[in-house]
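Pair request: fold both.
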Amino acid sequence: MQPNSPIKIFSGTGSRYLAEKISASYGIELGKSSVLRFSDGEIQPCFEETVRGDFVFIVQSTYSPAENLLELLMMIDAASRASAYKIVAVIPYFGFARQDRKDRPRVSIAAKLMSNLLAAAGVSRVITMDLHADQIQGFFDVPVDHLYASTVFIDHVRSLKLDNLVIASPDTGGTKRANSYSKYLDAPMVICHKTRKAANVIGEMTIIGDVKGKNVVLVDDMIDTAGTIATAANLIMESGAISVRCMATHALLTGPAYERIEQSALTEVIVTDSIPLRKPSPKIQVISIADLFSDIIKKVYNNQSISTTFLF
């Protein structure tokens, strides 16, 4: 039986913008914490209030730089050493998730290493969203609540009231995600099949399915350099589509991503605020996941089921 432990929500520096919205949605103040930075770059996170016996939620996406991950690990360790009752890592974007297997010799399975580090730091539970690979949940020996951005994206798609809607996956790896949207929205699905010359470099791409005269919505878990999304959008329009949009949970948007999006055939790109945008763009619309995470945190704290929250 859970003791009467107060709930407290804290944030790492990389996700403070989101943690403030989550705590406001929950109806409590964001916990006080700070990070001491030594002249050599070393960091020392510190809780500026007691957490003894508390149910502690720490919000931090582990996007680049790796210091965001290190800060999260150190905050978990600090909370554990300060006698927190439970420590839940709220990681809207789980970095290193693309390294979930040995796709070539002599490489690290970094996603498994990250799960080991979180466990070693003392985490009790993990809440994350749209992992690059579902099997990463099995890397953890603590409970993992895997959320889906479809909960907030579906309403946006319906608000567009698009005729002849088609859901598209930008690569074969995303077919399961696209198929879920397709079934829920009762719309056909197409697949963009690509080959890569190297990481973040596309070789060739072809479309499997019919997009002529259709309004196409691409769905993906993340946009990094936007090479795949831009190439897929241009190819879809060249194949006779009326319009093409993209919905992606995590907006990494590195390198030439902004230029590629703005110069592409994409009408709009809808992303969440799991990662802060480096700069605004007229084609990029951000939908907040703060209310969703607030609701899940409340259910986890009260030992309630979260499965009813998700559409699929």
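--- second member of the pair ---
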Amino acid sequence: MRMKMFVYSLREYDERQFFDTICGELGIEYDSVPEVPTPDNISLAKGYDVINIITCPIDEERIVKLKEAGVRLIMSRTVGTDHINKEAAARYGIPVMGISYSPCAVADYAIMLMLMGCRKLKYVQLRTIGRDYGLYGRLGRELRDCTVGLYGGGDIGKTVARQLSGFGCRILICDRHPDPEIAGIAEYVDPDRLLSESDILSLHLSGTQENYHIIGADEFACMKDGVMLINTARGLLIDTKAMIDAIESGKIGFAGLDVIENEKGMYYFDHEDRILTNKDFSILNGYPNVIVLPHMAFYTEPAVRDMVVNSTVAAKGFFDDKEQAND
């Protein structure tokens, strides 16, 4: 069987070349649009075996229309699949898959945010724009003097630990499945110790319902005053109201956020001439000690290539396996 794939949210300027190459090599027929799937354009996928998407919402209404269009697999070229209503997909018999990609992309970004926080870079930039080149209020700290806590020890968390080891800082990590290799460079601890002992807390957990608001008011109360909070994972991990309170009280000294709650529909689009309705984003973006970035920690050439290639290969493997099982 020659698999047919319809790609939504395809970016001409970086993804197209990789889709053309891998689909040509595997003999896959594909078409695409730059838009996200909507109830109005899902009909474009009629006759295709799989849709390939990024972090756009796929709710029950869209799943019903995908079923009617004959789509047999939802493939997300992302690690997380929390943007898809997997319960509804299961009810309608449509499997959902995600993929992995270079963990170095997000790991590098997380460490970049740590360094920006250590050197108060947003505040320095804001003052420099106003031609204030003084040193007052800009005294930084060195990463080697910090205890860095990593909440989550999957591929990305472990990569952060390996890369941080070169800075000479103390590294704590909290994960249910300790890795003996990582134990040589980081100390595995329980959540209580992670929260209470970390100068910098970096989140690397999946966006599951179990992890919803895993960092809230009670957790902030356990942290050091002036703690640095880094989130390059999923916005739902943090209770935003509690985080805003912690910033304003001084509990959080710096926050580096590549993701925030309720970001869907905002990131990856040009809103230059529009009023943004995400009030939390506007509040967070206004603080001199908070950096809010548009969910792009993944965005490197190797990672984009991995996302395209791995999602396409995985989709083909899924249908190849089904064919073999039916032989």
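Observation on the second member. The longest helix spans residues 301-326.
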